[in-house]
Amino acid sequence: MLEETTTKSACLVCEEEKPSGILILGCFICDDCEKKIIETRVHEKEYCGHLHKLKKIWEFVLTY
Predict the structure, then answer these.
(1) CA-CA distance, 27 to 6, in Å (whole number)?
(2) CB neighbours of 33 closer than 8 A, spacing ≥ 6?
(3) How many domains, the chain?
(4) Staple 13 to which of 24, 30, 33, 59, CB 3.0 to 4.6 Å?
(5) What pTM does this model have?
(6) What distance, in Å, lies between the first and last C-alpha atoms of the chain?
(7) Residue-range definition of the domain harbouring residue 26
(8) Strand, helix or coil for residue 4
(9) pLDDT band, residue 2 (cuts 50/70/90)
(10) Which residues pair with 23 in a beta bridge?
(11) Residues facing 30 on adjacent strands
């Protein structure tokens, strides 16, 4: 489930409080991080970091 939000929440990726972004299965990703994730190529070093952070979504889902 993917939703847009405009309430201030802590981003799953950068861990900063941001006013807008998306909710993926109850986990918030800010607009800035969403853009960075989309634009990151598989061969870039940041890719693995993004992947690791996104795995937290499944950890959240599986614990609830």
Answers:
(1) 14
(2) 11, 12, 13, 14, 21
(3) 1
(4) 33
(5) 0.79
(6) 15
(7) 2-63
(8) strand
(9) low
(10) 3, 28
(11) 21
The answer for residues whose C-beta is within 8 angstroms of residue 43's C-beta and 6 or more apart is none
| Distance between CA atoms of residues 63 and 36, nearest Å | 27
Judged by DSSP in three states, 50 sits in helix
CA–CA dist 4, 1 (Å, integer) = 10
For residue 38, give every residue at least 6 positions away whose Cβ sits within 8 Å of its Cβ, in sequence order, or none. Answer: none
Q: What is the pLDDT of residues 3-61, one digit of tens each?
A: 666 667 899 999 999 999 999 988 999 999 999 999 999 999 999 999 999 998 888 88
In the three-class reduction of DSSP (H, G, I as helix; E, B as strand; rest coil), residue 40 is classed as coil
Q: Which two tokens stand for residue 18?
A: 């941001």
3-state class (DSSP) for residue 31: helix
